[in-house]
Amino acid sequence: MLFTNSYIQSVYDSVAVRNPNETEFLQAVGEVLQSLQPVIQQRPDLQQHAILERMCEPERFVQFRIAWQDDSGKVQVNRGYRVQFNSAIGPYKGGLRFHPSVNASIIKFLGFEQGFKNSLTGLPMGGAKGGSDFDPKGKSDSEIMRFCQAFMTELYRHIGPDTDVPAGDIGVGAKEVGYLFGQYKRICNQFNGVLTGKGLAYGGSLMRPQATGYGLLYFVEEMLSSMKQNSVKGKTLVISGCGNVAIYAAEKAQQLGAKVVAMSDSKGYIYDAEGIDLSLVKSIREGMRGPIIQYKELKPSAVYTEGCRNIWSVPCDIALPCATQNELQAEDAALLISNGVMAVAEGANMPTTPEAVSLLQKASVLYAPGKASNAGGVSVSGLEMSQNSLRYSWTAEEVDSKLQQIMVDIFHNASDAAKAYGMEGNLLAGANIAGFLKVADAMIAQGVY
Ligand code: NDP
Ligand code: 2IT
Questions:
Q1: Mutation test residue for ligand 2: of 177, 346, 378, 403, the one with most atoms within 8 Å of CB
Q2: Which domain holds residue 309?
């Protein structure tokens, strides 16, 4: 990767040498460093303090074995991870992903991004991520419980309500968080806010399940109104994925008067010209996380197409990638542009490749980077931590209005930072700069570590 600033080039090159073959991590680092070039020129102290070098090296990276018994009694072995990237502005905070593709590179890219995202929320949370290559698909409830217990039997020693607070991500929802929390409580003999995304009966926050998807739409609404004097109402949306983020993005989009015509999973996508019936999607996904092809069985007028990336061929005004990293590539961006897309906003983490982002920006399509637009989930996790500390629960309306305000503030912080550094309208650069500066200043204030 090439940079115009020679110092930034040398930082990137040494990260690349130190982390060979970690393509997703290097992609995330490269994208942030690219945005920081004007900041580095104005702030020579950042180089003096080696802030970039320190931010690109996790404070701690733990990898461990997870052995558990499947329903037939056979012992299975998986690999677990927790990366504690940066604690400058608060306890480490970030989700756990259970998916067969999980490896060190993916966990590190997610942990690196999380630090900037958490900074943008304005809440006191550092950056972390974790997970396992365990595949929850096709596993029984008992297998998932035993796996979660085995995972926590190692993880517990690295986390705590003032140290590191995990939550969900792909393959980890309320059920898994419940099993993880139960095991932590048994081992430590402590009932505290060590995880977020908990059930309401034992310290969870109202609105946490909805938070990422709803927050995404609050961000898009603010972006359309500020940058195009427009709104979500009456727009046609395509949303990839059909998990937690996608479902609640679709729900809020429909509440705001938009029509969602397509959703997907890792195998293919459904198109419903009448607008997606979310109650059907929820009934398919609840419990066993069924495949989206079942939508067509329940509603035969819908069309199912194999291949999840084909979803970007569906004409729409707003595209929301809400499945996984690098799911929207240059060819997909070109198709969206030729079909007249107005905005692309990321619900997933790093779903748009750098080539696709650059095509969208050149075509003047509004582009919202995930670390800003999907920050609603971790924001309500931060509010769950506050409620746990207070030993109190806020109403859904209270949490929702705080979430809305946080998303509006994130948009303006990103937009203002872009303008201040001569890149008006570039929300990617603005989000990276605004998220970075707060962490950088906190690191300098706390001395060399
Ligand atoms: P879920 O596990 O609830 O759903 C994931 C969805 O993405 C499923 O539809 C799944 O399809 C699809 N998917 C997963 N992996 C792939 C892949 N390799 N290729 C194509 N499709 C895939 O996860 P979430 O909704 O929680 O997470 C979705 C994205 O949002 C992730 O990038 C996550 O990091 C990000 N995110 C999540 C937050 C949260 O609060 N949960 C907060 C901020 C960001 P299938 O069922 O077929 O596997
Ligand atoms: O990517 C993310 O922001 C999340 N998966 C949510 C993290 C959290 O701690 O709620």
A1: 378
A2: 211-373
